[in-house]
Specification:
This protein is of the alpha/beta class. Helix content is 40%, strand content 13%. It is built from 17 helices and 13 strands. α11 (271-284) packs across α15 (368-381) and α15 (368-381) runs parallel beside α16 (408-426). The structure holds ligand GBH. Ligand GBH is lined by residues 55, 58, 201-202, 205, 209, 260, 330, 362, 390, 437, 444, 453.
């Protein structure tokens, strides 16, 4: 037996004895010690940032408090038949009032960072024009509370809750301009303390899903020509937002976005399939991330859209392609790609019916997506830094009488994704941090409260928060800065 295996053997034997002779609580958040018993050998680089993510409409509640104006999600969720069970974000987690409790949850986890979003219509009830001072005051309080607890805020300006008063919504170019003004105001008021901003969250969700599929607010089903123009106003808003944030900042800030790029995993890790995933990544993200990173619509996209292609005004792409300090991607599930002699050189493979998924059927389990999501974006566009701005899953959590939630499926999902995150970091890709979706169960959009994504369980009647097993797991990951 060499030294290393002798040491390992000793540890295993000691661990077994400890288990046999003591009765520790099974999941004790904050249990001291324990580090010596295990070393995964998968350490993250020093300074790697761990965080949790949330979004305003999903957690805040306080929908009518202190002068907040309605957003398209207030209107949509109050329209019969649009959301599961007619659920709305009127109360959600009531984080509008309970934000100090939520900062303590973050502190107990030991996260260095917290990704949150701002409700545009809390700050500008009409979307533009006269600001509501009570709105920005709320975010001042949240930011100050985070900083007092040594947690760095990463703020998303727009996570789908467009002020309802903005006429035409994203059908209007005026909305992109209004977003620029809103970004300027936020930068003026928060950038003395907040140094990291994301403009928009997931273009496809507030464009295609809202205006073509109708699954999300505002629930329209418009023709492709309109949708292409709406997509363009989405990325234009992002670009104007980047410029306005920078132009109004009180000091150096870092600006990026949070985009659910479509991620492609090679069916086999061989050269031809790997290069097929790059082709797929560039083409399938053409209206959004590809346009932002390359400063144009690629020829293939324009050819595909034909007469439906968007009208682009001079200067639009100068704004849209403003250099970013970081690229954030939200990743839940990928598609598999193989090399082929099809027109574009790849085939997106259909999944067999037996393919496994988490509680939300769309979260099909393929943890390699974290590695390939980072690698494909880096190999194509070489961003300075990347973040995983969301990753997580729903589970059919059950709160036990003793207050525990043993969400082993979520821990399985997260552990395997974090393993693949580690692979990307170990290979030298500039991945700087990870935001787990989500800090706590919340309003899951059209799925209402039927899908829980939190690592804290929320009893939506009492609003009490309970850490799940996954919260304890995440705390260990953060404490050790390694895969656990
Ligand atoms: C992210 O979106 C959001 O940023 C976040 O707010 C959200 O809570 C989180 O993920 C979890 O969902 O039901 O088959 O028609 C995820 C984007 C768009 C993915 C809608 C699921 C519906 C698929 N989602 N999509 S399906």
């Amino acid at each position: 037996m060499n030294d290393l295996s002798r040491r390992k053997f000793g540890q295993i034997a000691a661990g077994a004895a400890a288990l046999a002779s003591t009765s520790l609580p099974r999941f004790a958040l904050g249990r001291a010690g324990g580090d010596a018993d295990h070393d995964s050998g998968r350490k993250f680089p020093d300074g790697f940032l761990w965080g949790c993510a949330t979004a305003a409409y999903q957690i805040e509640g306080g929908a009518k408090d202190d002068g907040r104006g309605p957003s398209v999600w207030d209107v949509f969720s109050h329209t019969p038949g649009k959301t599961h069970n007619g659920d709305t974000g009127d109360v959600a987690d009531d984080s509008y009032h309970l934000y100090k409790t939520d900062v303590q949850l973050l502190k107990n986890l030991g996260v260095q960072t917290y990704r949150m979003s701002i409700s545009w219509s809390r700050v500008f009830p009409e979307g533009k024009g006269k600001p509501n001072p009570a709105g920005i005051d709320y975010y001042n309080r949240v930011v100050d509370e985070l900083l007092a607890n040594n947690i760095t805020p990463y703020i998303t300006l727009f996570h789908w809750d467009l002020p309802a008063a903005l006429e035409g919504g994203w059908r209007s170019r005026e909305t992109s301009l209004a977003f620029g003004d809103y970004a300027a105001y936020i930068s003026q008021h928060l950038s003395d303390r907040v140094k990291h901003f994301m403009t928009t969250n997931e273009f496809v969700c507030f464009t295609d899903l809202g205006y073509q599929i109708g699954q999300f607010a505002p629930g329209l089903k418009l023709p492709l020509k309109d949708v292409c123009q709406i997509r363009h106003y989405g990325i234009l808003a992002h670009g104007l937002g980047v410029q306005a944030l920078r132009a109004n900042a009180k000091g150096p800030i870092e600006v990026g976005l949070a985009e659910n790029a479509q991620v492609f995993v090679p069916v086999m890790e061989t050269g031809e399939h790997i290069s097929a995933t790059q082709k797929a990544t560039r083409l399938m993200n053409a209206p959004f991330l590809t346009a932002v990173m390359e400063g144009k619509y690629i020829d293939e996209y324009l050819a595909q859209m034909g007469p439906n292609a968007p009208k682009v005004e001079p200067g639009d792409f100068a704004a849209i392609s403003s250099p970013l300090d970081f690229v954030g991607v939200n990743i839940y599930t990928p598609d598999y790609v193989s090399a082929s002699d099809s027109k574009y050189g790849f085939t997106v493979e259909k999944r067999p019916a037996s393919y496994p998924h988490m509680y939300s059927p769309w979260i099909e389990i393929a943890p390699e997506c974290l590695y390939w999501g980072i690698r494909n974006v880096c190999d194509l566009w070489h961003p300075k830094k990347m973040f995983i701005t969301e990753n997580g899953c729903s589970s059919s959590d059950v709160l036990k009488p003793d207050g525990s939630v043993v969400d082993i499926d979520r821990v399985m999902y997260l552990r395997n994704h974090v393993m693949n995150l580690h692979r990307a970091a170990a290979e030298g890709y500039p991945i700087k941090g990870y935001f787990l979706w989500s800090l706590l169960d919340n309003y899951e959009w059209a799925d209402g409260y039927s899908k829980r994504f939190g690592i804290h369980y929320v009893d939506f009647k009492t609003l009490k928060r309970y850490p799940k097993l996954s919260a304890e797991w995440y705390r260990e990951v953060i404490k050790r800065n390694e895969v656990v």
